[in-house]
Design goal:
The structure holds two protein chains of two kinds. By secondary structure, chain A is of the alpha+beta class. Chain A contains 15 helices and 25 strands. Classes of the chains: A alpha+beta, B alpha/beta.
Chain lengths: 552, 463
């Protein structure tokens, strides 16, 4: 049935009116997006068609779909509608772990049990549940959603047992009631508890192994008790163990954040000891571990760390620094890192792409495409494949009748360089996206036209790390777009290495000998005249933020 | 492809060769610095001919031949016919000795010390190794074929060791020596005491603070291990009594820490104990005797000469430094004659590196036992081969040039104990994992460096 001209006019007027979104929802939950180029992802492209949304779901999609009488009509002539994007590496709405760690385990007694936590120790809590902790404000959500991301998988970002994740739709006032799916997976990683057990990689892996044995036994006890409780001591109520029971039973997927080649191999090896197939999250050096990744799925982060931030590259580069052109080597390494997804694709490994915490998620996906990843695979990797890995392939990730109405509207293909998001639907709720301010577009892609920042001189830096604040004096000599120098703090004086300027961004690293181990600290700062702000990755000590000011 | 790593491992000479453009004056851009670590082919039949063979077990054979079949030594002797089809390595003017075994290494570990608890018997070096550690290649170039990679000495009972053969180019899992019995690191004395200092403010200090406490930690640990062992034995007994249709008994909770200690009690896991002073060593031997296990090796053991008879009587090996006297508080009584004196009293002595650097020249360290204390040439040779193999429980597999053993060999251009000699080739299981003629020489390296543009060295660069 065709709309009467009046109804259509009313619909278009409604769509164009500057009314706040909430009142628009009150008018009707039925939408017809007409004249749109529809990128369904799973069923090809419809050059000019209609998507009908009703009660948060896609009711119909096609080239000649009738527009329902009660629908508000949005004429998307010249625009492309794609499935809303997903990011499976988010910590949105979760409180950051408390700094410095908690209680001390069993002190004094030599015979302390192998791993009785004895107090809250961040990162050692598989019982954490993102769905229960979720607390988001519209202010957190809008910048992410404006990129075209309509759902995120939320999990704590650090620790060796991080807890269960939840797939969250990016509606303005999302609560636990709106969650698409939870628990999605148990999340693990390789950060220990500095100064306590497990403090090093040695302890971390063993702790994970022991926990799986403990969980296997807990599963056995629970089964036995359920079958025949009489005459049997009841199994202990242990929230940590109970949270791992579905994992060892193979009922809850295991997501292990593993970025370096060795981490990837270790993750897969440990999982195999317990007959588990983990999904590798991050996989920065997946291209070095293709054989190990075969048969596993991966969530590949496109946060593109500096080479020095990955253990393998930092090792290589620190070793060759006195001999070679480290800047050229770093550029080569960067190319390999950006080409990671393309390499995995060529090897037939199925993966989703994710932000890895980077604010440049979509621009970085474009870099992965530039490095050889076919654009259609890239699009699948941020839509249907991501949905499938989150266990929501039936309800999300493509434009098909019956799926959740998470959509993104852009001019041109959403992943093309010139694409701009003009609107988003989440659960059928429309959110308009204002065009970015002119200044930002000028800065745009790459720093090609921006002269390199000047960082030479002496800087007073204040860093806030999980271990507390620290004052650092930094002396820098710049030569073109590279720089060297020293950093002096209570930890002594150390040389800066890999100092690079790209536009206004300065990156460098530093090797620290600490407690018999060598740690590479990686810094990234935005330079604004005589001021700099940024972040630092401190290896197993977590991450830090800093501000710095150039001394006159 | 898997091992086609790019970005060279510098000073690994082969790497530099790949990294330095062949024609620096060429207008073409240099190829990306791709390094692929070559994996040597597994030769089935190899013959090393006409060489001076230092067997370490039955003297020296002049102008001898070694035949290697499927990675094992098949024949040794003068006037041996070279089998048809064998890959021949001309040993004329060369010295062949067993591949060097370093009984104390920390190479290739991404973590060394889980010192957060006094007992971390549950952690495994095997979990944290990386096959691209440059130290491995340098050791291979120094004739080393086997390493005992140990946990650090921060706590009384440290982690589980990994015995590896340096099969450079292969994944780390393929380097693990399958036939080696598992081991564990213990540590006594100052390192344990002094790493109890404040670590993170607010965290309790780790027990113990004295050597008295270290003994208590050991006795307490093995008492618990005995109880745990009994628990499992009771479970196994109960299982045997289960009749058809009855429920199986519930097994005890598995404890990875106590598992390792029970293996020590049962003689299945070898104890390698970091120790310096005679009093602490006697304490450990007494604890081991009380609990019925043998200490496989004392590591460092710089006061071992004072109690050599007691060490020999306990069937314990001693793995020591060639010198390092008075380098720390508990080494004040150390003397350079230690290795030779212990050997004279019947202790199986090895000389270890405890250092990626020293590991490259263990043959020179062994020579010092001849100079200080007058060990015989073969005795000194055994200190870096057969005796180390015995301490690691792998002397049936490797450690000497004997028929049936793995063909782990180091070929030198002169006598290994002569100061200017160097390793020409290192073979593991009959495969050539290091060949100096195929790796650039130091001279070639210097030439290549001269032709390269100088890097900016104003900041010093060194750490």
């Amino acid at each position: 049935m065709r709309l009467t001209p009046v109804a259509r006019a009313l619909g278009v007027a409604a769509a164009l009116s500057p009314l706040p979104v909430c009142s628009a929802v009150a008018q009707s939950d039925t939408w017809a997006l007409i004249n749109a180029r529809i990128q369904t992802v799973t069923r090809g492209v419809i050059d000019k068609g209609t998507v009908v949304i009703r009660k948060g779901l896609i009711e119909a999609v096609g080239a000649s779909v009738p527009v329902p009488a009660d629908a508000r009509v949005l004429d998307l002539m010249g625009k492309t509608v794609s499935p809303g994007l997903l990011d499976l590496t988010s910590s949105l709405g979760l409180a950051a772990p408390a700094a410095g760690g908690g209680g001390g385990g069993a002190g004094g007694g030599a015979a302390a049990a192998t791993q009785s936590p004895g107090g809250p120790r961040p990162g050692l809590d598989p019982e954490r549940d993102a769905a229960r902790e979720l607390k988001v404000s519209p202010g957190d959500i809008k910048p992410v959603r404006d990129l075209g991301i309509t759902a995120v998988l939320v999990s704590p970002s650090r620790g060796l047992f991080r807890g269960a994740s939840a797939l969250v739709p990016l509606r303005d006032s999302v609560t636990a009631a709106d969650i698409i799916r939870a628990p999605v997976a148990m999340h693990m990683g390789y950060q220990g508890v500095p100064g306590d057990y497990p403090g090093t990689l040695l302890g971390v892996i063993t702790y994970q192994r022991q926990s799986f044995y403990d969980a296997q036994r807990q599963a056995l006890l629970l089964d036995r008790y359920k079958a025949s409780p009489r005459g049997m001591a009841r199994p202990e109520n242990d929230a940590s163990l109970d949270a791992l029971v579905p994992v060892v039973r193979g009922q809850l997927p295991l997501f292990i954040e593993a970025n370096s080649e060795n981490e990837i191999r270790r993750a897969i090896r440990l999982a195999r000891e317990f007959n588990l197939k983990p999904t590798i999250v991050g996989a920065t050096e997946g291209f070095e571990a293709l054989d190990a990744l075969g048969g596993s799925s991966a969530i590949v982060s496109v946060n593109f760390p500096q080479p020095a931030q990955t253990t393998r590259w930092s090792y290589r580069l620190s070793q060759r620094r006195p001999l070679g052109d480290s800047a050229a080597a770093a550029r080569e390494a960067q190319k390999m890192i950006e080409g990671n997804a393309a390499t995995l694709q060529k090897s037939g490994i199925r993966f989703a792409l994710a932000s890895g915490g980077s604010r440049d998620f979509i621009p970085n996906v474009r870099k992965a495409i530039a490095a050889g990843l076919p654009a259609n695979v890239a699009l699948e990797s941020v839509t249907i494949r991501a949905a499938e890995l989150a266990g929501a392939g039936e309800i999300l990730g493509s434009i098909e009748a019956g799926k959740i109405a998470n959509l993104v509207i852009s001019n041109g293909d959403i992943l093309s360089d010139s694409a701009r998001v003009s609107g988003v639907f989440v659960d059928g709720i429309r959110y308009e996206v204002a065009p970015p301010p002119a200044a930002r577009t000028a800065g745009g892609n790459g720093a090609g036209n921006v002269p390199p920042a000047q960082v030479g001189g002496t800087w007073a830096m204040n860093m806030t790390s999980p271990q507390g604040p620290m004052d650092i004096t930094m002396t820098i000599t710049q030569s073109g777009t590279s720089f060297s120098g020293t950093m002096t703090s209570m930890m002594g004086t150390n040389d800066i290495s890999e100092g690079q300027i790209t536009g206004r961004t300065a990156t460098w690293s530093m090797n620290l000998q600490f407690g018999g181990q060598s740690i590479t600290l990686s810094y990234r700062g935005e330079v604004d005249g005589n001021k700099m702000t940024g972040t630092a990755e401190l290896g197993s000590f977590g991450s830090a933020t800093f501000t710095a000011e150039r001394k006159p | 492809m898997r091992y086609a790593h790019f970005l060279a491992l510098p000073l690994a000479a082969g790497a530099l060769a790949a990294q330095v453009p062949a024609r620096p004056d060429s207008a073409r851009p240099a190829a990306p610095p791709v390094l692929s670590i070559p994996i040597p082919p597994a030769g089935t039949l190899v013959a090393i001919t006409n060489a001076t063979i230092l067997t370490a077990s039955h003297g020296t054979i002049e102008k001898g031949t070694i035949v290697i079949r499927n990675g094992k030594i098949a024949a040794i002797g003068k006037d041996l016919a070279v089998p048809a089809g064998a890959q021949v390595i001309d040993g004329n003017g060369k010295y062949v000795m067993p591949g060097i075994i370093d009984a104390h290494s920390h190479s290739a570990g991404e973590a060394i010390n889980e010192g957060s608890r006094s007992i971390t018997a549950q952690v495994r070096m095997q979990d944290v190794l990386r096959e691209d550690a440059i130290g491995l290649y340098r050791e291979l170039a120094g004739g080393v074929t086997t390493l005992n990679i140990l946990h650090g000495s921060a706590n009384t009972i440290g982690g589980q060791n990994a015995v590896v053969k340096i099969r450079w180019g292969l994944p780390i899992d393929s380097m693990l020596l399958a036939g080696a019995p598992p081991g564990i690191k213990f540590a006594l004395g100052e390192n344990v005491r002094q790493t109890n200092g404040p670590q993170i403010p607010g965290r309790p200090q780790r027990y113990p603070r004295t050597r008295m406490g270290q003994e208590e930690v050991l006795r307490d640990a093995f008492t618990r291990a005995r109880e745990y062992q009994a628990e499992w034995k009771a479970y196994e007994e109960a299982r045997k009594l289960v009749k058809k249709g009855q429920l199986e008994p519930i097994p005890p909770a598995r404890d990875l820490q106590l598992d390792a200690l029970v293996e020590v009690l049962e003689g299945k896991r070898l104890v390698h104990a970091h120790s310096y002073r005679s009093d602490e060593i006697l304490m450990l031997l007494k604890v081991a005797k009380d609990f019925g296990f043998r200490v496989a090796s004392l590591q460092h053991v710089l006061e071992g000469y004072k109690i050599a008879d007691e060490i020999a009587a306990a069937g314990t090996g001693a793995s020591t430094f060639a010198d390092n006297w008075a380098y720390k508080l508990e080494a004040y009584d150390a003397i350079p004659f230690n290795a030779a004196l212990m050997a004279e009293r019947g202790v199986k002595v090895s000389i270890n590196s405890d250092s990626d650097e020293r590991a490259r020249r263990l043959y020179q360290e062994a020579a010092k036992a001849m100079k200080y204390g007058g060990a015989s040439e073969e005795e000194a040779l055994r200190m870096i081969t057969l005796n180390a193999a015995w301490q690691l429980g792998i002397d049936k597999l490797t450690g000497s040039i004997d028929i049936g053993k793995d063909a782990d060999l180091a070929i030198f251009n002169g006598h290994p104990f002569a100061p200017a000699s160097r390793v020409e080739m290192t073979l593991i299981d009959g495969r050539v994992f290091f060949d100096r003629n195929k790796a650039p020489t130091l001279e070639a390296l210097i030439e290549m460096l001269k032709r390269r543009p100088r890097p900016n060295t104003t900041s010093g660069g060194a750490q």
